[in-house]
Amino acid sequence: MTSAPASGHNLPPDPLLDAAAGIETTADFTRFRQRDDVFTRAFWDDTVRSKQSDAFFASYRMDANPRKGEGFQQKDFALRNAAWLVSDIISNRSAGDGVREGFQAPIRADTPVAPVQVAIDDPARMATEVKRIARFFGADLCGVTGFDERWIYQTQVDTRDFSESPVEMPPGMTSVIVLGHQMDQPLVQTYPSALAGAATGREYSHEAAIVMQVAAYIRNLGYNAVASMNDTGLVIPFAVKAGLGEYARNQLVITPEFGPRLRFSKIFTDLPLSHDTPKPLGVKAVCDICTRCADACPVKALPFGAPSAETQNRSAIKGVVKWTSDAEKCFGYWAKLASDCAICLRVCPFNRDFSKRRNRLWLKLALSPLRRLALWLDDQSGRAARLKPRDWWAG
Ligand code: SF4
Ligand code: SF4
């Protein structure tokens, strides 16, 4: 295995920024290899691959529908798989080259970098413009942070034989634009179900289009831009450093706008942009006294204790002090369901519609010293209850 060459324009980590983002690494920190991602392991590692995991992937085609219960009927899979369609078209278009765009490799550029470069004398103004453009194309949140090689995968895989090669980033990338994509709340409330997977699939399809369009805009300005979904690097540390939210026990970034109900994508670029800073909200103090996600996880894949550098298996990055799930247990449950599970997202007290005043008031309470009262109120409200798929279909 070869290690990755220096990519992008890497600056030494800023300890103050790391502290503000809650990022703590230890001496045995090692960049993550994409081959160890549990979804990638399901193709090459017999300790993860099973008949159920094969059926999980097959269920994304309508010729295989392994379950029949409520929320897992043909119309549920039909909606979920339709929601994934645009993402699937992008991720499959280079399959012959061993490249699964957006998942095991960045999205290939469809637009050359313009030969004439627009002069940018005010990176702060440019960052404001980029955020406006991201919203124009449909992103719900946008933040900008510095390129940080620690979170770039050490290697990426060729999906034909799962061999590894270094992640190659164009030289001189200075910034990461992080985009947030809100998942549909009523659908999320039906987790676990194949129906709920439509909330995930719709955002993958949205984000594929949005990162491609924002990257094309930047390339048309004469600067480099690499559109990225789950590929190339871990998005969570970039999202936190870009000030979009705070990392939580359920492995998600909790935002003041949408709680944990978001997917994130990213664009690596050399466009001159000013950077946002982390904005700690007080979520960690809530997670310190709340284990609702860990309690609700059917396979007990989430940790109950304090953040630590302990990992359960090779599908977790080494040397980062944080809450880390057992990805093998989690994926095993997804395979059993034949769809994604996000019970830990549904039950999280921050999973609320913050466009409503009463939920904004609850957020203030939760992020104050009265957080125990906020959790008690959440328990009393019945908010975490599962919406029956038949009730979702009934509208
Ligand atoms: S997604 Fe489901 S299985 Fe995985 S950690 Fe969350 S609740 Fe547990
Ligand atoms: S359920 Fe509780 S512990 Fe889990 S992420 Fe949400 S607030 Fe944190």
UniProtKB/TrEMBL annotation:
Pfam families: Dehalogenase, Fer4_16
Alphabetized InterPro entries for the sequence: 4Fe4S_Fe-S-bd, 4Fe4S_Fe_S_CS, RDH_dom
4Fe-4S ferredoxin-type domain residues: 278-307
Keywords from the named record: Iron, Iron-sulfur, Metal-binding
Protein name: 4Fe-4S dicluster domain-containing protein
